């Protein structure tokens, strides 16, 4: 954005200057040349203007902006340095605003907010046009950083009756079904008003407020309507609406629009558990995005802001987890991890990929018989057992330099737990649809969003508690596999302390705590964790809806009884252990029951 002199400034400064008229013509000429894309002529006019009045901050600013456009909007580093120098000298609002725009397009959203905040604090003192630009851009930044509740409070402040706002759009206008951008044609700043209206409606939609998204034939409003259907869980209508968006952009090679449509279609199919179809859409989205992000050093600043590979790879990684392709999921998650390294949910997803890869290796090992061979020596049978799974894993880990491993899973879970513990202490966890407090109503800056899982939406108390339970369960399991039994027991105990613990996690907590105590040779403490009585009170629906091996209450009961039989055998109660095994008939424990019966036969002298 160019910075221009106001009429008052010109009159005061050149009141007795005979060259005023000529200079004003040069200013208007430079502005027209810039607007029409004649940047070389614009620079010549600015040089001629400098001869009349000498150099000043506005002239330096405009020359830097014009050179930036002359080079195809690519050399944003040079422009940013010039803007910083200009802002430090003159405290220019336009220079500061342009700096925030550069940070926004470079995906440095928090830096953009911090740069823009001094202008927001003096919003009432700015010129009408600058105030409108700052207000709109602030709203955009709050939305892109997932500060949805704060954006709603800021919008309410802008639309308050006591404000002498230039935006001219109130709540009633936005709620009107007939309201569309065509109504704004008579305004002085049509494009600005339309941008403001879109952001205002988007704020209402993302905060789940009742509002009609009136389509105006543009891709932006059509896509926003599709998003509204998605939030309302009407996935079929959301998909139909996205097809309309696709028809709007069908005539042009708009890679940004195609990327958005493909990604959103993938998200819809992910929600309805069509994981293979979702993965295909995400891969298409990445292919479209590569046209933008293939050479980030040689594209314009505005093209740079449309690259969304990190977010799409995050979605693709989740689809790959559901498709039980952990190695691909692991590779997908590593890319967004570089940008969103403080996201505990992302760290947890990476650990899930590592755990799934380990489990698939163990399943392959479990298919092999426990007893590799039997030899008769002197009328007695000798059993040869296969090596321990843990030993096999450690040998693999020494030779494997990259890829998902349990060691990496442990580190990822440690990071996830550290981050969630920190956020729990500094953030208030609101419940779903919680009304704003009195302090939030008084000042929009007091509103706090739990948006620490970017690029995901802000997290609620319920989802936060669920994530913490999942982290504790996974951490306990990984610690067991790595032989850190004390850590496994501590994590299982923390899991059992959770306020609202699902029945599936309750079963896991008891299993992991009991196994850790067995390995610590605390058998008397381990046995109560395997009492089958608590299983009968568990909810079968919790197991049937989970994507894991224990898919029924009967399977869960068999797992618990088998573990109880193991404890009894270790305590020397061989007969009781054998009786307990007789009720373990589910296929999920069949192979292990056979191995334990063989062990009991040996101990009880029945192996000959």
pLDDT < 50 stretches: 10-14, 177-189, 388-401
Alpha carbon gyration radius? 32 Å
Biggest sheet overview: 2 strands, antiparallel
Number of strands: 2
Q: Topology of this structure?
A:
Blueprint: H1 7-13, H2 20-35, H3 39-53, H4 57-70, H5 76-90, H6 93-105, H7 109-121, H8 128-144, H9 148-158, H10 171-175, H11 190-206, H12 219-231, H13 235-248, H14 255-271, H15 275-293, H16 301-304, H17 309-322, H18 326-339, H19 344-366, E1 371-377, E2 380-385, H20 389-399, H21 406-426, H22 438-442, H23 461-482, H24 485-496, H25 503-519, H26 523-526, H27 540-544, H28 553-570, H29 574-581, H30 590-603
Antiparallel strand pairs: 1-2
Explain the overall architecture.
By secondary structure, the protein is an all-alpha fold. The protein has a domain at 500-608: Serine Threonine Protein Phosphatase 5, Tetratricopeptide repeat, CATH 1.25.40. The chain contains 30 helices and two strands. The chain has helices at residues 7-13, 20-35, 39-53, 57-70, 76-90, 93-105, 109-121, 128-144, 148-158, 171-175, 190-206, 219-231, 235-248, 255-271, 275-293, 301-304, 309-322, 326-339, 344-366, 389-399, 406-426, 438-442, 461-482, 485-496, 503-519, 523-526, 540-544, 553-570, 574-581, 590-603, and strands spanning 371-377, 380-385. Strands 1-2 form a two-stranded antiparallel sheet. β1 (371-377) and β2 form a beta hairpin. α7 (109-121) packs antiparallel against α8 (128-144). It starts with 6 loop residues before the first helix and ends in a 5-residue tail after the last helix. 37% of the residues are buried. The model is unreliable at 10-14, 177-189 and 388-401 (pLDDT under 50).
């Amino acid at each position: 954005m160019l910075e221009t002199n106001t009429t008052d400034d010109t009159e005061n400064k050149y009141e007795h200057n005979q060259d005023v008229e000529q200079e004003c013509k040069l200013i208007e000429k430079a502005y027209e040349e810039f607007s029409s894309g004649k940047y070389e002529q614009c620079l010549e006019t600015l040089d001629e203007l400098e001869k009349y009045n000498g150099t000043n901050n506005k002239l330096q600013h405009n020359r830097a902006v014009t050179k930036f456009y002359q080079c195809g909007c690519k050399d944003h580093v040079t422009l940013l340095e010039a803007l910083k120098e200009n802002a430090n000298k003159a405290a220019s609002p336009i220079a500061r605003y342009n700096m925030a725009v550069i940070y926004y397009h470079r995906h440095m959203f928090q830096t953009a907010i911090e740069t823009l905040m001094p202008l927001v604090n003096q919003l009432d003192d700015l010129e009408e046009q600058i105030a409108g630009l700052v207000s709109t851009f602030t709203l955009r930044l709050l939305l892109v950083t997932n500060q949805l509740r704060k954006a709603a409070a800021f919008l309410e402040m802008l639309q308050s009756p006591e404000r002498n706002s230039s935006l001219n759009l109130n709540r009633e206008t936005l709620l009107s079904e007939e309201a569309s951008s065509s109504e704004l044609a008579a305004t002085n700043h049509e494009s600005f008003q339309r941008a403001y209206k879109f952001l205002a409606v988007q704020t209402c939609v993302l905060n789940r407020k009742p509002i009609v998204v009136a389509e105006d034939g543009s891709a932006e409003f059509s896509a926003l309507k599709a998003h509204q259907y998605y939030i309302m869980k009407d996935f079929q209508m959301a998909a139909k609406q996205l097809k309309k968006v696709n028809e709007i952009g069908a005539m042009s090679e708009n890679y940004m629009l195609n990327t958005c449509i493909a990604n959103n279609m993938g998200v819809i199919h992910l929600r309805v558990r069509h994981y293979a179809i979702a993965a295909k859409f995400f891969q298409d989205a990445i292919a479209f995005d590569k046209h933008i992000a293939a050479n980030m050093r040689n594209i314009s600043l505005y093209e740079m802001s449309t690259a969304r590979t990190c977010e799409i790879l995050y979605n693709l990684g989740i689809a790959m987890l559901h498709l039980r392709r952990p190695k691909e999921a692991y590779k997908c998650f590593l890319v967004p991890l570089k940008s969103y390294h403080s996201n505990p949910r992302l760290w947890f997803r990476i650990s899930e990929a590592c755990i799934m890869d380990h489990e698939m290796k163990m399943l392959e090992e479990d298919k092999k018989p426990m007893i590799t061979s039997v030899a008769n020596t002197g009328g007695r049978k000798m059993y040869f057992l296969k090596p321990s799974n843990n030993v096999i894993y450690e040998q693999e880990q020494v030779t494997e330099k990259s890829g998902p491993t349990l060691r990496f899973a442990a580190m990822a879970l440690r990071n996830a737990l550290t981050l969630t513990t920190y956020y729990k202490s500094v953030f208030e966890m609101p419940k779903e649809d919680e009304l704003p407090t009195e302090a939030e109503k008084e000042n929009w800056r007091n509103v706090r969003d739990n948006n620490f899982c970017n690029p995901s939406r802000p997290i609620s108390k319920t989802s936060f508690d669920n994530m913490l339970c999942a982290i504790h369960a996974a951490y306990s399991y990984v610690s067991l596999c790595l032989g850190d039994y004390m850590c496994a027991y501590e994590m299982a105990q923390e899991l059992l302390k959770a306020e609202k613990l699902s029945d599936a996690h309750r079963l896991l907590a008891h299993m992991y705590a009991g196994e850790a105590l067995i390995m610590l040779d605390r058998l008397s403490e381990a046995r109560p964790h395997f009492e089958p009585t608590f299983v009968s009170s568990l909810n079968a629906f919790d197991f049937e809806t989970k994507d894991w091996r224990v898919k029924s209450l009967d399977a869960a009961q068999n797992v618990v009884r088998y573990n109880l039989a193991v404890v009894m055998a270790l305590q020397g109660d061989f007969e009781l252990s054998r009786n307990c095994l007789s009720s373990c008939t589910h296929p999920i424990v069949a192979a292990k029951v056979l191995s334990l019966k063989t062990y009991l036969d040996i101990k009880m002298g029945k192996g000959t």
